[in-house]
Amino acid sequence: MLNLSAPPPLTLYIHYPWCVRKCPYCDFNSHQVGDGLSEAAYLEALLRDLEQHLPAVWGRPIHAIFIGGGTPSLLSPQGVDQLLSQLRALLPLSAECEVTMEANPGTVEQGRFSAFREAGVNRLSIGIQSFNDGALQRLGRIHSGAEAIAAVEAAHAAGFDNLNLDLMFGLPGQSESAALADLTQAVSLTPTHLSWYQLTIEPNTAFAHSPPRLPEDEAIWDIQIAGQAYLAEKGYGQYEVSAYARPGRRCRHNLNYWRFGDYLGIGPGAHGKITHCAEGRIERVWKKRHPREWLEAPNRAAMVAGHNNIPRHDLVLEFMMNGLRLVEGFDVALFSETTGLPITAAEVPLSRAVELRLLEWDVERIVPTPKGRDHLNQLLAMFLPEE
User: How many domains does the chain have?
Assistant: First the structure.
């Protein structure tokens, strides 16, 4: 039994699994639109999915909501308004609840952005990936660079003052100057947050079956170093492996993940983590992955593909996989508060990581060094439970 005195902050993830077209690099649970499903049926199923979790989190405020996908901006503004209204009736939302919706250029315009904002969405995350038309075509994106710029301008015109842009680097044939040109264009559009991450070839994707030629590792490293320096110069502080933000604009939902907070996950393939303090356990829940299977479940419980209590011997690694992604690291107290374990449970690998100069560890705080961040996989491997 874990020693858990109080649950961590709670957020909500809502999955919308449909896109206009599946991108060849994407390994998310997303599907091409066109199966004739009604929006009303999907929204009703989301609420049915949520209701089964309410007894476990009763009275706990929701600090952030993230509507991800897929392409959630394909939802109608009326549907989003209905969904958020019903969520407010079922869950206590904190006074400053951050409500993020993912959107793609080519699926929105200013009028829809304005309506989403009126419905209660107060943060947008726009999937740009690149402003270069050739790069976008090679990535299988449905929009042009000009449409990407227009989408960001439309978001600003609709009143969104909390805005993330998703960008990739290490694209097929991309030079350092081309990668920095993408960042320069992005920064000129004054987002408050940037997610800037390396393209990787994931299993079971179109790119895995027919891999494009990516830049060499050394070239990708040079892009990363140059880009990080540029973003720091422009006032975007790096706070996680691929997340950069203006002061006070870090993504609350993702930050809660990385601080090992709790989250509800509703929709096909969504995952959740709930701390049960009285029972001394931390539970993971995951939903049936395919939208049709999830939708046609005969009851709420049948939407669940599986659940388990995180084994005590896995908790150290699970916490570190999140907390060590943060540039500023984490408070030692947070480890015990969220895992129910004393810090001594991780003392051996922590001490070894300090010896290798991958971590700094004082009485109050554990912080990955620049070397530790650059060799994160090596660092995390040190926390694997012994056989």
Answer: 2
